[in-house]
Amino acid sequence: MSIKENLLKIKSTIPANVTLVAVTKTHPVEKLLDLYEAGHRIFGENKVQELVEKYEVLPKDIEWHLIGHLQTNKVKYIAPFIALIHSVDSWKLLQEIDKQALKHKRTINCMLQIHIANEETKFGLNFQEAADLIHSKELKELKNIKIVGLMGMATNTEDISQISEEFLSLKLFYDNYSKDSSFNFQLSVLSMGMSSDYLLAIKNGSTMVRVGSSIFGNRNYG
Ligand SMILES: *Cc1c(COP(=O)(O)O)cnc(C)c1O
């Protein structure tokens, strides 16, 4: 199937209130243009250099999301244009994003990445660390960032009940902050689910899914 057909098929499976981020990592700009021409505008990349290179050559009405681990020293390259950073996992990184956003007279939308998987390799804060960050009074001093939501990745397993439990744990944590208006930021985005598990993520409350291979086919890591 073509990229456009894949896109339409996925869109037909997700409710209107769920945002689809097309994960374009590793794919050449020609393929991204196919997706653009099919009408899609929200693209996600996991590496800063690749994201910037694609941003530079593609149409400027694309909304770029960074979904992968971000090193503090690379924030400056995306600060002028990034629409949403899904993967904030430290106070130091948040401070740097705020500093770079100020330089460009912008507010940068961020999400805290929460470690929900039963795997050592995935980045993210645990629930306690995220709660501490959300409640820290220093956070109020960062005027050029906005925490809009939370992101999580489930364990890479066939065990559907485990994946569901992991998504649900994040949904329950998220609910505390999406309903509590006393908190500086009211969370409104819950980024969970990729090609293999996005329907399960939506069942468990996801409002934003990050889908790559179901749109573009398998990535060739060769
Ligand atoms: C690559 C990636 C995805 C998309 O994965 P697919 O299995 O290709 O849909 C989603 N989220 C993150 C953080 C990723 O790095």
Proportion of residues in helical segments: 25-40%
Order of helices and strands: HEHEHEHEHEHEHEHEH
Rounded to the nearest angstrom, the distance between the terminal CA atoms is 23 Å
CATH class: Alpha Beta
Which small molecules are bound? pyridoxal-5'-phosphate
CATH topology: TIM Barrel
Total strands: the figure is 8
Mean pLDDT: 95
The quaternary structure here is single chain
Keywords:
single chain, 222 residues, alpha/beta, TIM Barrel, eight-stranded parallel sheet, 9 helices, 39% helix, binds pyridoxal-5'-phosphate
Description:
The chain is of the alpha/beta class and 222 residues long. The chain has a single domain (3-216), classed as Alpha-Beta Barrel (TIM Barrel), CATH 3.20.20. It has 9 helices and 8 strands. It has helices spanning 3-13, 29-37, 48-57, 75-78, 91-103, 127-135, 160-179, 198-203, 213-216, and strands at 19-23, 42-45, 63-66, 84-88, 108-114, 145-152, 189-192, 208-211. The protein has an 8-stranded parallel β-sheet. Helix 5 (91-103) links the parallel strand 4 (84-88) and strand 5. The longest helix has 20 residues, at 160-179. It is globular, with a radius of gyration of 17 Å. The two termini are 23 Å apart. Pyridoxal-5'-phosphate (PLP) binds next to strand 8 and helix 9.
